[in-house]
Amino acid sequence: MEFFVAQILTGLANASSLFLVACGLSLIFGVTRIVNFAHGSLYMLGAYIGYSLMQVLPGMIGFWGAILLAGVIVGVIGVAIEMLVLRPVYRAPELFQLVATFGVILVIQDLALIIWGPEDLLGPRAPGLRGVVRIMGEPIPKYDIALLVITPLVAVALWYLITRTRVGVLVRAATQDREMVGALGVNQAWLFTGVFALGSALAGLGGALQLPKGGADLMMDFNILPPLFVVVVVGGMGSLPGAYLAAIIISVLNVFGVAYMPQSTLVLMFVVMIVVLMIRPYGLFGREEVAGEHGQAGEPERPIKPASDKIRLLVTAGIVILALLPLYGSSFAQVLTTDILIFCLFAASLHFLLGLGGMVSFGHAAYYGGGAYVAALLVTHAGSPMELAFILAPLGAGLAALVIGWVCLRLTGVYFAMLTLAFAQLLWSLVFQWGTVTGGDDGLINIWPAEWLKDTTIYFYFALFFAVGGILVMRHVAHSPFGYALRAARDSERQAEATGINTKQVQLLAFGFAGMMGGLAGALFVFSKGSVFPNELEIARSFDALIVVFLGGVKTLSGGVVGAGVFKAIEDVLTRFEYWRLIMGLLIIFVVILAPDGIVGSLRKAARRVGGLKAGGEE
Amino acid sequence: MFEVEKINSFYGKAHVLRDLSFSVPHGKVVALLGRNGAGKSTTMKSIIQLVRPASGSVLFQGQQMIGLPPHKIAKLGLGYVPEERRIFTDLTVSENLMVGLQPPRDGAVTWTQDMLFDLFPNLAERRNNRGKALSGGEQQMLTIARTLMGNPRFVLLDEPSEGVAPVIVEQMAQVIKQLKSEGLTILLSEQNLHFAQAVADLAVIIEGGAQVYFGTLQDLGAHPEIRDAYLAA
């Protein structure tokens, strides 16, 4: 019993930061409709800035002052991000803004590395709160008790702000209908900035507040995202009490998990989430997400057409040039091109899901890494020949996608997206924690192709065949009746249902198909590298693919492939520099602001403009 | 006071307003009449800039509205009451009014919540109820009251009689007359000619997005052929 109480108190104390960060994310999403992926980065900045301030500010007042000040500074940074990066793209399609926040993540990662260095920083103890108090004989850190008091106070203050002040009324009104709020004389731009400042400050506060319990390190930004999304999804987007309750549930569960089932702490969190979502699809206190109630921003979708003869010729020429690579390219060039081809296939499979299916998956790495792991596990544990493993890998990934898709497709919009990310992270934690089977962090090695494929050039042709083949199959499916049904379900679910299309079934099949293609890319990958590590399943990998699809252009068929080619090539150049993330991040932000239609979309627009001038304006 | 001149508005490629012109004199109520789909709501939206006209001019107190963001227009004293009402259903009646709150303005009544509850007694009893708990008529009153909280000089009222009970329509007419007597200028879009005749001084009739009549309601009474051709019976 004593132990039980102590565990619950620890859990409640741990919930503190998570709650603050989740509130910030929820607030920002409610008003701006942006899932701020950089929220984890703001949390990380809060920890680092708090740490630095604690070094200079002395004593108890200095310590608490540093925490508050860290919140304020991160709030100001949030304002800068909102005004410089997000304001220019509010008119772009909503999901495009995500890419801008990816760029911010990369920039902040490198800035933190430059300023604070690569070593993990150990958080200082709180002055006057060192040591423990005994509650029912169990030692509880004094700082935990302080957190237990502080969190409800912050929660009440937030609740007061949201429910009892005019600012709170405006925030809630804007969450429902921001256009109408504007027509009533409220400047939305400042409301957005204000909410972003508050949400960012909460993230910063959360980061600084956890310093004595943890510290500051460069992994914090991604590490907080899964529990953060889980809390927001379980609690219900935009619900303050929901976030509080969910943060407590997740944290308490985590503490008990560590005590009783240390191997499964990460998995446990997702199991809870899945159970909650099965019973209450929009979280404990959430409401159904009504997407695009007053019309979607951006231009209407252009119908996709089968390629013209000119394009076909161009593509054929491109493939021929690629196929002749071994004649003029070095073996390094062949390896690099193989990497690019694999990545193109992976990106194209996400593009199929996202562009044609309208299903925004934040966790597509699950199928890529999944396929790689299926192949590697078969080879390692079953001694399967390479050919068999290669065939079974995409099937395994596709099967996983069908199961995950079946759960995720119960939801739509942002809940769907977050759930896909959560599942990807679940697979990652399974692989990471189940070391005896998967090798954990050490990965699986010695997964080489069959004897006849060992040669770099032959493997290059092997990859070329399957990557190009896979992409062409997806293109073909896009133009098949199934592709039409899929696009109908994307554009108007109800109308599609009314014409006799079983939209959920079509979407599920598409999800499985895209997963299978992702798995094919993963299988190609694992045999080209001879090994696989958990990072092929991690969030960053999913984000790579998302960035590529958005940068290439969601609304164009070739977007994924073109984006992947450009991305890999740039990445290859940039990774030679020390701070390549910074450059990459800035590059992404610039592309988002300057070319909101992506590379292919913008080229096409430019071509139309030039063509339009010649033809004297056809439209 | 207010002038619309030759505005053209589009939804995508659909040409909805065609060279539409009319004016609203200070202190008058002008009825914007026309059939379903004639472009009444688009006219309203083109004034508050929720739809941006491709050409033409919208002058309010001599200032050009085209190109301004809606919140700046509202701050100049031009209030908008949308046809779909668009009240904030999760907010209470009182909170809905709080969203509309603007500083006092010269030459306009400075409304308080209590004054509005006097104007709409039904809302007074429901001040702590959420928007979604209100009846259609109550929602209509709330959306007008919310706009009045901004102390406007000129109000766009988009179909206030639509979809509400006859007794509420009667009440709306009384409210509009009272607002006019307090000096408010109103552009009112309507399908209901009787309602318009009860409250308006002038009428603009539009058909296919173009103006087909602009004059007094008395003169319109003398031209039954216009009424029959462009308005539903």
TrEMBL record, chain A:
Tell me which UniProt keywords the record has, alphabetically: Amino-acid transport, Cell membrane, Membrane, Transmembrane, Transmembrane helix, Transport
The record's Gene Ontology biological-process terms are: amino acid transport
Q: Does the keyword Transmembrane apply?
A: yes
Q: Which domain of life is it from?
A: Bacteria
Annotated Gene Ontology cellular component terms: plasma membrane
Transmembrane portions of the chain: 12-31, 37-54, 61-83, 95-116, 143-162, 189-212, 224-253, 259-279, 311-328, 340-358, 388-407, 414-434, 458-478, 508-527, 547-567, 579-596
Provide the membrane topology annotation: Multi-pass membrane protein
Q: Where is this protein found?
A: Cell membrane
GO MF, one term, reads: branched-chain amino acid transmembrane transporter activity
User: Pfam families recorded for this chain?
Assistant: BPD_transp_2
Q: Give the protein family.
A: Belongs to the binding-protein-dependent transport system permease family. LivHM subfamily.
Q: What is this protein called?
A: LIV-I protein H
What organism does this protein naturally occur in?
Thalassovita gelatinovora (Thalassobius gelatinovorus)
Q: List the lineage, top down.
A: Bacteria, Pseudomonadati, Pseudomonadota, Alphaproteobacteria, Rhodobacterales
UniProtKB/TrEMBL annotation, chain B:
Q: What SUPFAM superfamilies would the database entry show?
A: P-loop containing nucleoside triphosphate hydrolases
Occurrences of domain ABC transporter (ranges): 2-233
- UniProtKB keywords: Amino-acid transport, ATP-binding, Nucleotide-binding, Transport
One annotated GO biological process: L-amino acid transport
Name the Gene3D superfamilies for this protein: P-loop containing nucleotide triphosphate hydrolases
What Pfam family is a match for this entry? ABC_tran
Kindly indicate whether the keyword Nucleotide-binding belongs to this entry. Answer: yes
CDD domains this protein is in?
A: ABC_TM1139_LivF_branched (cd03224)
Q: Which family does it belong to?
A: Belongs to the ABC transporter superfamily.
Name of this protein: LIV-I protein F
Organism per entry: Thalassovita gelatinovora (Thalassobius gelatinovorus)
